[in-house]
Design a protein that fits this description.
The chain is mainly alpha-helical. Helices cover 60% and strands 11% of the residues. The longest helix is centred in the middle third of the chain and has 13 residues. The chain starts with a helix and ends with a helix. 11% of the residues are buried. It comes from Umezawaea endophytica. Keywords: DNA-binding, Transcription, Transcription regulation.
Length: 127
């Protein structure tokens, strides 16, 4: 017997607490994911290059983000058997499909920065 909740999970209903789409939304809605995918949208990159380009990310958070993206099939990790070992990260085909919607969100945030900042300021000083 399929319950309403499990049936919704099979359809892909992010409003259902048991649906796996919630975990996917958590991953792609994370600020570090948005920025890492943006960097990798320019092509393969090494860990140190990603860390340089994503200002403020700690080594621990970048490692966790890359591992999660790799686990989800959005990033490919390639180890080159050189001395020293060289590791590069790249978006998979699925990962590349995120570029357009994430770039749209980045563009929106830049275009509306002034309006949002003004609203925050007005709200903070309304009391």
């Amino acid at each position: 017997m399929v319950t309403t909740s499990s049936a919704a999970a099979l359809r892909g209903d992010p409003y259902d607490a048991n649906c796996a789409t919630r975990r996917i939304l958590d991953r792609i809605g994370d600020r570090w994911t948005v920025l890492v995918v943006g960097v990798l949208g320019d092509g393969e990159a090494r860990f140190s290059e990603i860390r340089r380009r994503v200002d403020g990310v700690s080594q621990k958070m970048l490692t966790q983000t890359l591992r999660g993206l790799e686990r989800d099939g959005l990033v490919r990790r390639t180890v080159h058997p050189t001395v020293p070992v060289r590791v590069e990260y790249a978006l998979t085909e699925a990962g590349r499909t995120l570029l357009e919607p994430l770039r749209a969100l980045q563009k929106w945030s830049i275009e509306h920065l002034g309006d949002v900042s003004a609203s925050q300021n007005a709200y903070d000083h309304a009391e």
